[in-house]
Structure formats: C-alpha cells, structure tokens
Amino acid sequence: MGRAPCCDKNGLKKGPWTPEEDLKLIDYIKKHGHGSWRTLPKNAGLDRCGKSCRLRWTNYLRPDIKRGRFSFEEEETIIQLHSVLGNKWSAIAARLSGRTDNEIKNYWNTHIRKRLLRMGIDPITHSPRIDLLDLSSLLNSSLYNTSQLNVSTLLGIQSGVNPELLRLATTLLSSQCQNQNQNQNPEFSSFPQNLQENQLYNPKFEDLQTEVQEHPVCTTSTRPCDTFLYETKIMKTNVEQYQSNPTFNLCCQSLQSTMWQDNVVPEELRGKFIPTTDQSSLIDSLFDVPSVLSTPSSSPTPLNSFSTYINSSTTEDEKDSFCSNIFKFEIPDALDTNDFLY
DNA sequence: AATGTGTTCAACCGCAGACTT
DNA sequence: AAAGTCTGCGGTTGAACACAT
Question: Check: CATH 1.10.10.60 for A72-118?
C-alpha cells in the first residue's frame, strides 16, 4: 500500500499568509531546509498543508526571487520563449533567473497577452489574427478590383484564419464581382491556386519545416508550434515567387496604395519611411516582424521597414501605440466578429 | 464621497507523472 | 502489480487595489 495521506485538509488554514506565518516558514527552512513538504508544516508549527507552504516559499519567500517590474529585455525573452515553448511557464522561468513561473504566467496574462491582442497578434500561435481584418475594406480595395484576389491566399495565410470567415469572404467575392473580372487576366486567374499549391509542396520550405520540427512542440496549441517567424518566412517566400509576375507587381502597387489611402500606416509615420514601388521592399514591409514579437534585438533590420521605426522607439508606449495602429482592424458594423473568434 | 468597473497577482484547485509501500 | 502519496505544473479564482464616473 501507499503512504499515509499528505495532510488532513480539515481544519488547515487557507488564504493569504500572515507575516508571522512567513517568519515561521523562513526560519524553519533556513535551519533545516524544506526537506519533505509533507512534514514541514507540522515541524515548523504551521497550520497549513505542505502544498501551501511549498507554493508560498517558491513563489514568494525564496531569497533569490527578483521582484519589481519586468524589464524590456525580460519581456522580449518571455515572448521569444513562449513562441517556442508555449505555456510551459516553468521552462520559461528556468531561463529567467529570479522569476517564478507563477509571476511569468501572471505577467503574460495581464500584460503581454493583452498587448499582443491589441496588436492583432494571436498570443497562442504568435500569428497575425487575420480573422479580425476589415473584410469589407479589403474586399472593396483597389487590390481586389485589380485582381479579384483572395486576400488570404495572396498572403499565403491559412492557419489562424477562421474557415467560416474565409468562406464568407469567398462568398462575398464571388457574388459581388462574379462578372467583373472573370476574363480580365487569364494568367492571373490561376495565381491564387498556384500560390496555395506552392505553399504546400514547395521544396524550399523543407529546411524551414525541419527547423521548426526540431523545436520543442507547443502542447497547448491546437496545431504544431510553427512560430510566427516561420510563418512569416513562408509567406514571404510564397510572395517572392510571384515577383516576376507582372500582374503581381500591379497587385503590390495597388496594395501599397491601399495601405496608404486606408490609413493602415499612421499619418505621423508616413514620413519615416519612403513609399516605394519596389516589390521586395513592400514585401519586406508587409512581412517584417516588430522586434517585440520574435526577432532578437541583435538581428539585422531592413531599412525600409516597420521595425526600423519600432526599434528606434524610445518608450514601450510608443511601440505599443505604433503596433496598435499597424494592426488596427476596423470591424464592420454589420459583422458580428464574436461569431468568428476562436 | 460614493459607487461602479477594470486590473493585478497571490493563492488555490485539479491533474499527471514520479515515486513509495 | 497495484494502490496510494508526493511533487510540480498550468489554469483559474477572488480579494485588494486603482481608476473613472
């Protein structure tokens, strides 16, 4: 048979610890070490269960705990580790000296998670939340008028997009402009499908796939932990494939003009980087990831990119503000987006 | 000043795997 | 081998606090 029960839960104190209890616990562990948590409360004269003592010690009383606000570097580290490890708070805490898993978990849920959501980033997958895009403006944009292009297919994004929303978008596309562009450009009409096939089978991605598969797997995610960087690489590679396509060039110019016209880029920032008709620069801009997300601060940054501005920001608020604008999606009144959110 | 609302975070709960008997 | 405990972990809660009206 097994051991005797850890503790009799009846009558044991719960709730916040008093300074006296803290002192008792600290004194005991200083003298004897914690040893068996099961027997500790009795030996230390505490009316608590061992589990409660262990939690109090590891999360609050341990002398090597670093208290106070998280630094920017710590925050960036947490985001990077989370993109690889998922909600493995203890594993993340092990790489941040002085911080407990509980503290990191709380900080993630109260600060980082909300910030990512404000930026339109899914905090679980670290991918852009395309399901929050303003479909109506996208569908009516000059991009659409030029190419009758399925937006999600253009971006090479499928994961993270609610299928219902995509279906709705597709329905809208086909019903609104069924006759408009059908014969406009036969070459381009096969473009989306080709792009999709490329994403699935392109041998160029094999090394990236391997790269990701070598990482630990995100157990809390509903799909393998393909990080934001990985997806960004794929998207970028996908689009680069079509740079030689003249119709795609048109499309890029159209998209860029739409971004400017529709206030995707905040007014005050338009002077910070120069509008360009060069597709590669545009693509870099579209797929560049702000450093606060996943890019190590030491990584090289394209000059003509959003992150150039972000990295030169002086305060966290500025970054947040800028990123919020970049990812600010207006939800059409007629569309109840709650129905589409995971 | 009173009340309502939002935020924070210490502490609890329940589960799973390791361990003991 | 089986039954039960121990330990660590991640998710969740709710009291305390901050801020807005």
Answer: yes
